Amino acid sequence: MDEIKNKVGFICDMDGVIYHGSRVLDGVTDFINWMIENNKKFVFLTNSAERTPHELSMKLERMGLEVTPDHFYTSAMATAEFLNNQKPGCTAYVIGEAALTKALYDRQIYMNDVNPDYVVVGETRTYSFERIEKAIELVLKGAKLIGTNPDITGPTEKGIMPATGALIAPIEIATGKKAYFVGKPNPLMLRHGLKTLGCHSADIAFIGDRMDTDIIAGIESNIDTVLVLSGVTSMEDIDNFPYRPKYIIGGVGDIVK
Q: How many Å apart are CA 133 and CA 153, to the nearest integer?
């Protein structure tokens, strides 16, 4: 545990690491207070595209945690940045929540349901057959299919729920087109985290709860990985993968016990 504590900074996942839905996980308050008191650099990376950094800050505040918006980077922001770099001034048809639309607007990527350059899909609770039909039509006309993240499921206080990977699958199947996913394990997310912290990869630990997105992203970015068992992964699941995290702990609270 001392090796983890001695890191200069931390990149942390959120769902399954900090909270499940609206329930903060055990030991999280102590961990965040410890990082602040010890002047640790930290950024939260989340594959969820449902909330803006300000909304995430407010969500943690309701849980009793004081974290300013500049400590958050979402897959919606990463997707907007990626599309802006690929084709400045492009347009998109979006299946997702307001935070995704806002991130795109912030990069001057505007909505278009006639002949968009991209069809972009993120987590949403307004998923409908009509919107799937429209997305399929536009992709078949030539729009490129983009997913904010590849997660098939995500943890909530109600249990495991479908995430972007599951929502985009019908469009992929119907069109025969594979989506490009911007969120973890795509190294674009972790590169931004390192840039935000201004640290060398050797000085950082990446904390996550998913082997298929968090841990592989850390390994491929040459960052020490810490798997927490407070999310979707159990000890029994680890042997199903051909790679392993450097550290395995019950939850982030274990770091400061």
A: 22
